Amino acid sequence: MPRLDEGYRLARWLTGSASDAEDVVQEACIRAYRAIENFAEGNARAWFLTIVRNAAYSWLQRHRPSKLVSLEDMPIEAQHEVETGGILVAAVPTPEDLLLAKQRSVALKNAVEKLPLHLRETLVLREFHGLSYREIAAISNVPTGTVMSRLAKARQSLLSLLKETDH
């Protein structure tokens, strides 16, 4: 239960839809419940996020062609929560700050959406969930070097996409 929010955020990024993410998390919880006896001492967070990831990919294969996966429009509050993990800024923003933040948020969301799924997944797990390379490798079932390569490529692609929107 303590990892549901993180699981939801990962599912939300992978599926691109709030309702689809809820379905994925529900399926992941059922899978986790059934597999809890097999869980040995270890990182419960990585274990659960692995289950969410696998459930999301299974769901995407069953319900959508890979070319159609994209995020739907979200209210600015929901975007901020997904992007920052729910951490609130202490200062009261001005209307200008809110407008600029919304524009940057939309630009970032759009740029992340344009990344290929495997790069987006790695970027979200590292930057939004704060997982280590080793944890991401375990979740994604790839070598640590591949995680590092994907992350570097995702960051570089993200910067290029964001520069394109500035012009």
Can you give me a brief rundown of this structure?
With 167 residues, the chain is an all-alpha fold. 73% of the residues lie in helices and 0% in strands. The protein has a single domain (4-166), classed as Arc Repressor Mutant, subunit A (Orthogonal Bundle).
Describe the structure.
This protein has helices at residues 4-15, 18-35, 44-63, 76-84, 95-114, 117-128, 133-140, 144-166. The model is unreliable at 68-72 (pLDDT under 50). The longest helix is centred in the last third of the chain and has 23 residues, at 144-166. 25% of the residues are buried. It is mainly α. The chain has one domain: Arc Repressor Mutant, subunit A (Orthogonal Bundle).
Which parts are unreliable, with pLDDT below 50 for 5 consecutive residues or more?
Answer: 68-72
In total, how many domains does the architecture comprise?
Answer: 1
Looking at the structure, what is the overall shape? Answer: globular
The CATH homologous superfamily: Winged helix-like DNA-binding domain superfamily/Winged helix DNA-binding domain
Number of helices: 8
Task: Please estimate the helix content.
Answer: over 70%
The total count of strands amounts to: 0
- In the CATH hierarchy, the third-tier topology is known as Arc Repressor Mutant, subunit A
Q: What is the overall pLDDT average?
A: 81
